[in-house]
Amino acid sequence: MPNATVEHTRRKFLAGSALVLSGAIFGVPAMTPSNALAADYTQNPFTLVYDGAITKNVSGKVNINPVKYKLNGLDIAANVYTPANYDSGRKYPAIVVAHPNGGVKEQVAGLYAQHLAQQGYITITADAAYQGGSGGEPRNVDKPASRIEDIHGMADFISGYPGVDTTRLGLLGICGGGGYALSAAKTDKRFKSVATLSMFNSGRVRRNGFADSQLGTIQQRLRQVSDARAQEMSGGTILYAGDADMTDAQIAALPFEMYRQGYEYYWRTHAHPNSTFRYTMSSLLDLMRWDATDQIELIDQPLLMIAGSKADSLYMTEEAFPKATGTQDKELFRIDGATHIETYWVPKYVDAAMGKLKPFFARTLAFVRS
């Protein structure tokens, strides 16, 4: 269960929620105290919640560097990871890591950024604008254009970081960040290669429901979010979707494993006060007309898509992959036995993902250890 501080923050978030749309909650794999240790952000000086996280910077080891930069007038909070024996006078390949919907840089995005830094890359992961530790009002706006711009902004910042070789820049998107990574890479050719992990097509799910389970209510929900936008623009109460205060029994009754496990991950075992499923209802006007696979044929860079073989979100990766016709250098890799959220934290599945990411980025970013 969350510690007292996280639980207090969670309930404070929930108290401000005005509306929850069916199917709007974002989720992950069911965990119990026997198979996942609670990661307390208060016990880490960088508030990281993943297993094996850096607790202090040590000379000669991978280091973490919290940074802030401006993006379209907003303060963006990010973490830059530098490899062991980092020397700003050398040139290193770099990788941008985009976090999941509802996630923050201290969770799974940080885990993979740290693992990649251990392979010799400079990596960056940032909280989305309007979310987490980044600026922007109203809070928790979650629009595709903003999330895609966040990725471009990370590329902008890391390209000027000491030691970064801008000719060797890669991109990794996780879950919702995977869908936005596909969109960013379509036009941003600074990225020499792109990888996704457990890609989540946010637009399709917000429009059609998870596993296309809400096709019959699309017009009804569009009218609902249109009214929410009108209310917001007239100065009325901002309505939110995505919050839910659920008991363990209610979590267990959720229809999709990804949602059950996601709730466990984000609100129980890897809780962070900056992480919430909450997003403005008006964001759905943008989300419901967007799709991660739109014009995906513009991707001509090497592409690696990774997903769990038992993930109930696997259909999103499997349907996106063949549409990426602009590149012949592509691979779809299924992690045997893994569900969506298990790829976030279960060591053997993280190792399996890294087992593909390591040679992929080494080859496509022409990385040679010196």
Description:
The chain is α/β, with parallel strands linked by helices and 370 residues long. The chain has a single domain, classed as Rossmann fold (3-Layer(aba) Sandwich), CATH 3.40.50.1820. Helix content is 34%, strand content 17%. The protein has twelve helices and ten strands. An eight-stranded mixed sheet has the order 1-2-4-3-5-6-9-10, with helices on both faces. The N and C termini lie far apart (45 Å).
Task: Give a topology summary.
Elements: H1 4-15, E1 63-71, E2 74-82, E3 92-98, H2 108-118, E4 122-126, H3 144-159, E5 164-174, H4 176-187, E6 191-197, H5 202-208, H6 218-233, E7 240-241, H7 248-252, H8 257-269, E8 279-280, H9 283-287, E9 303-308, H10 314-320, E10 330-335, H11 342-345, H12 347-364
Parallel strand pairs: 3-4, 3-5, 5-6, 6-9, 9-10
Antiparallel strand pairs: 1-2, 2-4, 7-8
Helix pairs in contact: 3-4
